């Protein structure tokens, strides 16, 4: 598979914001999935295991997990 980037810098559409790779919907870690596909991550990765979610009424709920939600 060949992937072409439209912009001169990968990720430029995010305007240098931090982005997270979703890591909770599969049984394996997303970075391991990349490596198994032959993709060596060449970026800084910071596992996110804690955060806050909000329900329909706007009530804040603390979330935490041993496994990262995002990488």
The structure class reads mainly beta
Strand order of the largest sheet: 1-2
Poorly predicted runs are none
Percent helix, as a range, is under 10%
Cα distance spanning the termini: 24 Å
Q: List the helices and strands in order.
A: HEE
Shape call: extended
Beta-strand content bin: 5-15%
Structure write-up:
The protein has 1 helix and 2 strands. It is mostly beta strands. It has a domain at 18-64. A two-stranded antiparallel ribbon has the order 1-2. A hairpin with a 5-residue loop joins strand 1 (50-54) and strand 2. The longest helix has 7 residues, at 30-36. The two termini are 24 Å apart. The mean pLDDT is 87.
Offer a few descriptive terms:
single chain; 71 residues; mainly beta; two-stranded antiparallel sheet; 2 strands; 10% helix; 14% strand
List the helices and strands and how they pair.
Blueprint: H1 30-36, E1 50-54, E2 60-64
Antiparallel strand pairs: 1-2
Short description:
This protein is mainly β and 71 residues long. The chain is built from one helix and two strands; from the N terminus they run αββ. It has a domain at 18-64.
């Amino acid at each position: 598979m060949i992937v072409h980037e439209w912009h001169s810098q990968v990720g430029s559409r995010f305007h240098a914001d931090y982005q997270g790779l979703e890591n909770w919907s599969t049984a394996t870690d997303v970075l391991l999935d990349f490596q198994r596909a032959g993709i060596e991550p060449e970026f800084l990765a910071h596992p996110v295991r804690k955060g806050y979610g909000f329900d329909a009424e706007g009530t804040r709920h603390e979330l935490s997990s041993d496994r990262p939600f995002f990488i």
